[in-house]
């Protein structure tokens, strides 16, 4: 599903509308467990020895006395400070640029989104084409700036309404052969390397005996 997003940058004079969608399209294969007789065995949720069917459990806001509350009746706190739930970013304002190396080496990126020009929800075909053309032109300006300077653009980017900690997004220029585009990687945390090596190791050949325990599944 694609979501609307406006991107602005006062430094180089950019303002355009795009849509973004998750780049992860991979679906995990459904693995079935079987016993020695070849019968299917399922991993079930059990309470006091009774198997709970799917959809039989619910989550509710309740106090220690068992009184139920709606979410609108509640406030949320981090220690002594009241916090608010996030709302999805509608306008991503680029607040700075960082070396491309930071994106790959310094940060853990949790999820990636592809962005593409919006038609601005115009009704007429000619207006949609003009909107896409204008937004594509502005996207290309940003792409060229990122490529020429070997940087990524950073700004607050909350892709969904969930949780209470805001996240930043990094816009990176993408190029495959003669095709180009932009992706947004969502910052999760900074990498902390604790086992970096200083000296070049001496080569040593180690022979391992392979152990066969079924077919090994690997994503490419």
Summarize the structure.
With 220 residues, the chain is mostly beta strands. It has two helices and 16 strands. It has a domain of 132 residues: Ku70, Chain: A, Domain 2.
Describe this structure in words.
By secondary structure, this protein is mainly beta. The protein has a domain at 3-26 and 83-190: Beta Barrel (Ku70, Chain: A, Domain 2), CATH 2.40.290. The protein is built from two helices and 16 strands. The strands form five sheets. An eight-stranded mixed sheet has the order 11-1-2-13-16-15-14-12. A two-stranded antiparallel sheet has the order 3-4. It has a two-stranded antiparallel sheet with strand order 5-6. It is extended and about 65 Å long. The two termini are 24 Å apart.
Tell me the layout of helices and strands:
Layout: E1 3-9, E2 14-22, E3 33-34, E4 40-41, E5 45-47, E6 50-52, E7 61-62, E8 68-69, E9 76-78, E10 81-83, E11 91-93, E12 96-99, H1 100-106, E13 107-117, H2 125-149, E14 151-156, E15 168-176, E16 179-190
Parallel strand pairs: 1-11
Antiparallel strand pairs: 1-2, 2-13, 3-4, 5-6, 7-8, 9-10, 12-14, 13-16, 14-15, 15-16
- Looking across the biggest beta sheet, what order are the strands in? 11-1-2-13-16-15-14-12
Mean pLDDT across every amino acid position = 89
The CATH C-level name of the domain at 3-26 and 83-190 is Mainly Beta
Order of helices and strands: EEEEEEEEEEEEHEHEEE
CATH architecture of the domain at 3-26 and 83-190: Beta Barrel
Rg for CA atoms: 25 Å
Count of beta strands: 16
Number of helices: 2
Question: Which regions have little confidence, pLDDT < 50, spanning 5+ residues?
Answer: none
First and last CA, distance: 24 Å
Q: Helix proportion of residues, in percent?
A: 10-25%
Helix and strand content put the structural class at mainly beta
Biggest sheet character: 8 strands, mixed
Task: Give the overall silhouette.
Answer: extended
Tell me what portion of residues adopts beta-strand conformation: 35-45%
The CATH topology label of the domain at 3-26 and 83-190 is Ku70, Chain: A, Domain 2
